[in-house]
Amino acid sequence: MYSIVSTAIVCGIQSVVIQVEADVCDGMPAFEMVGVLSSEIKEAKERIRAAIRNSGIRLAPKKITINLYPADLRKNGTVFDLPIALAILSGYGRIPQKYLDGILFAGEISLNGEIRPTSGILPMVLAAREAGKHVVCVPQENVREARVVREMTILPGKNLMQVIDLIQKFSQHPWEDLPNNRDNIERTRIKYQNEDCDFAGLHGQKVLKRACEIAASGRHNMLLLGSPGSGKTMAARAVSTILPPLAEEEALELAKVYSVAGLFGQREKNFIERPYRSPHHTISVAGLAGGGAVPKPGEISLAHKGVLFLDELTEFQKPVLEVLRQPLEERGIHLVRKSGSFFFPADIMLIAAMNPCNCGYFPDRNRCTCTRAVIGRHLNKISRPLLDRMDLCVEVQRPALSALTAKEPEETSSEIRDRVGRTQFIQQKRFHGTGILYNSQIPISMMGQWCGMEPEAEKLLKESFEQLELTARGYFRILRVARTIADMEGAEKICRCHIRESLLYRCIDRKMWEWE
Question: What is the structure's pLDDT at 516?
């Protein structure tokens, strides 16, 4: 007897619907599975046999053939256990085929028939909705994750027998909704923004705060250079508190990344809060960019639509830093493996912090004991191409005691966030319908249209290009930052003062490379 059950497989952060076909017929008892399968799927037949038997179901010895199609797509993972078991039971006539139609199943089965949680459920539910299915059966532990998707009915699976009873009752008496089924995004919006690091706690440092606001307003990358204890790390953490909340579409895309990585719980309670990731400097290339035989997202993708902070930048291995160059330009990562090609989004705002020398106190010669050669070797750990991708380079000075002890209240992150939101609204209005959201994303071909300059501003930029020996990339990044500064002031055209301020945030890279 023939039966068919729908499931899905995750490829990158996207999901593809897979059909599980089962043919049960008389003949020499056998259990064959075909369809370009990984080892964990081939081993599933032993789990499924034991699960069916331990669930109290006795099946006559017959020839069982399972096919997973499309056959040209390699299947991996353990989400196929439940759909294969149900397809076999339907092939034996234990479950009517009509009970299985229109439902997508996913879940791993233990030897005693319990349904175990799995990663990547969110993209699977989205794939089911795109395929026209409105009912999905997932492990009990994955139910809250699945309910993020609107207009879907989620059936919670605890064990094999419970799933069989559940789909039978649902088929005979379909209900519009399950209890608490419409959690969706509303319940996850209770908390917004981690206010543990507020700009109100950063005393003094007006230049640093100004640079952070510019970076947040245009989503520009930023490098902070300064001595230990000057406030670099605190400022980087506080930047995430001045970014406007994620739009629903952005939040759902980011949740897919965390779902595939098996970290959905980290996003559930802060669904619209932009991520802040700060990996340790011992991280590997695969840990940062993603990897594995079946690639999983790395820290770059987990920071998608948010902030990736690299503290102690010169302590990272050079190959790890160089892997950032392409994602910063393309806002995504393509990984090619034997099992296929995978794409992970990486639209990040990179903030990096480093000391100016090994001891951290240069150019204060009263405290710094590093030689010129030592300083040069320290700074040379950062390649010029990577430095060129930093829109703002800020020299963070040690705050004065008077600033630390001042009683006047500092501006809060909430107040700055309102201004950042207004500036970003100007950009989104300007770029409406183009797929561009922020000034940092302006393509070179559109610079003339969106980055109009006053004659004096254009003259200053031309002079600076020669004097600072800027690269083409550096030239256009200065222009993008100037566009953001102009937007913050509500100016239609870029003025000389906007270019001058933007140049101030590029002078530091010339200082660094004087030590080569």
Answer: 46
Q: Kindly report each contact of residues 166-169 with a partner whose C-beta sits within 8 Å and lies 24 or more positions away, as own/partner.
A: 166/137, 167/95, 167/99, 167/100, 167/103, 167/137, 168/95, 168/99
Are 234 and 197 in contact by the 8 Å Cβ rule? The answer is yes
Interatomic CA distance for residues 271 and 191, integer angstroms: 8
User: Distance between CA 459 and CA 288 in Å, rounded?
Assistant: 41
H helix or E strand, kind and range, residue 479: helix 472-488
Closest Cα partner for 259 from 147, 77, 106, 119? 119
- Is-contact 153 181, C-beta < 8 A? yes
How far is 223 from 474, CA to CA, in rounded Å?
A: 14
Q: In angstroms, what CA-CA distances link 452 with 282, 404, 457, 498?
A: 44, 41, 10, 12
List Cα–Cα distances, 151 to 107, 134, 136, 148, 176, in angstroms.
21, 7, 11, 10, 10
Task: Return all residues near 151 (Cβ < 8 A) that are at least 6 apart.
Answer: 129, 134
Instruction: Give residue 93's pLDDT.
Output: 92
- The CA distance from 34 to 371, in Å, is 66
Contact yes or no for 278/309 (Cβ under 8 A): yes
Dist. CA 320–CA 281, nearest whole Å = 9
Q: Is the dihedral of CA 496, 328, 321, 279 positive or negative?
A: positive
Global pTM reads 0.88
Distance CA 49, CA 53 (A): 6
- Give the model's pLDDT for residue 175: 57
pLDDT of residue 182: 44
Domains of the chain in sequence order: 2-172 (3.30.230.10), 199-513 (3.40.50.300)
Locate 77 and state its tokens: 């993972």
- Which one, of 96, 165, 173, lies nearest residue 137 by Cα? 165
Q: What is the pLDDT of residue 325?
A: 92
Dist CA 275 CA 304 (whole Å): 7
Helix and strand totals (H; E) in the chain: 24, 18
Q: Give 10-residue mean pLDDT values along the chain (516 residues).
A: 93 92 91 87 90 93 92 87 95 93 94 94 94 93 91 92 91 58 46 64 88 96 90 92 92 94 87 93 94 89 96 93 93 86 93 89 82 85 88 87 77 93 94 92 92 94 87 91 96 94 79 51
Q: How many CA atoms lie within 13 A of 459 on its CB side?
A: 4
DSSP per-residue codes, 80-128: THHHHHHHHHHHTTSS-HHHHTTEEE--EE-TTSBEEP-S-HHHHHHHH
